[in-house]
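Hey all, quick one. A colleague (J.T.) asked me to put the zinc ion job into the tracker so the inputs and the C-alpha cells live in one place instead of scattered across chat threads. No bug as far as I know, just bookkeeping. Sequence used:
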Amino acid sequence: MKWTVLGCQSPYPAPGGGTPGYLLETGGEKILVDCGSGVLSRLGRYFPPHQLDAVLLSHLHADHIVDLFVLQYAVWTAIRLGKRKSPLTVYAPSQPAGWADKIAYRRAVTHQPIREGESVAFGGCTVTFHRTEHAIPCYAMEIRAGERVILYGADAGPSTGWESMCRNPDLFVCEGSYLHRDTPERPVGHHSVFQAAEAARRIGAKRLLITHLYPEYDFPSLLQEAESAYNGELSLAEPGWTLSL
Ligand SMILES: [Zn+2]
C-alpha cells in the first residue's frame, strides 16, 4: 500500500495547497480518499483523474468534497472521448441528503452509500468504515492489506472510539485542527494537535501523520505540541508526503 497526501489543510487551503485528499495505491488500484479543494489539481501530477478506480468520502462537508464536482466533469468527458468505459463509484455517507443527492452524475459517477462496520475490498486491501464523533455522519477508514494497517481518522472529536477500531496501526492519519490553547469551549467534532497525539499513543500507533491543519499555524508550534504527547514516528502532513507499507 502507498499513501500520498494531496491536500491536508482545513478549513481552507494555503496558497498552492489543498483541503483534505489522499491517494491510496494498492495492488495496482488507485483510490482517492476525500476530495477537497485543490485535490484534483494535485492528483493530476500523478495521473489523469479519470484513471481513478474509486473514490471514498469520509463525510459530506465542503472541505472534503468540493473537488468531486469537477471530478464528475473529468470522468464524464473521459467517457465521451472513449478514454474510460465504466462509471466511477463514489463510496460516501447518505447524509446529509442534500449533498448526497449531488454525488451521482449522469452515467459517469455512481454513489454507493457506506455504513458503520461495512467493508469494501480493493486491490488486495480491505477498507472498513467506523463512525467518528463529528457534526454529521463521518467515517474513519481502517485499511488493511495483509499485516499492514492504515487508520485514516477523517474528521473526529476526542470522544471517538479509536481503541475499538484498531490497535497498533502502521500509520495513523489523524486530524489536529487546532493548537490545544485554541480549543473551542463547546465540542465541535475535532481534535487539537495534542489530542491527536494522545489518541495515537493510546492505540499504539507506530507512526502518526497529523493532518487537517489550519494553514496559518507554523510547523514548529504544531510539532512541539504533538511531541509532548507522542514519542513514536511523527510527521505533519504536507502535499506530496508519501509512505509505502
Ligand atoms: Zn474537515
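Adding what we noticed when we looked at it: The pocket of zinc ion is lined by residues 10, 61, 63-64, 155, 212 (CB under 6 Å). The first helix runs from residue 39 to 43.
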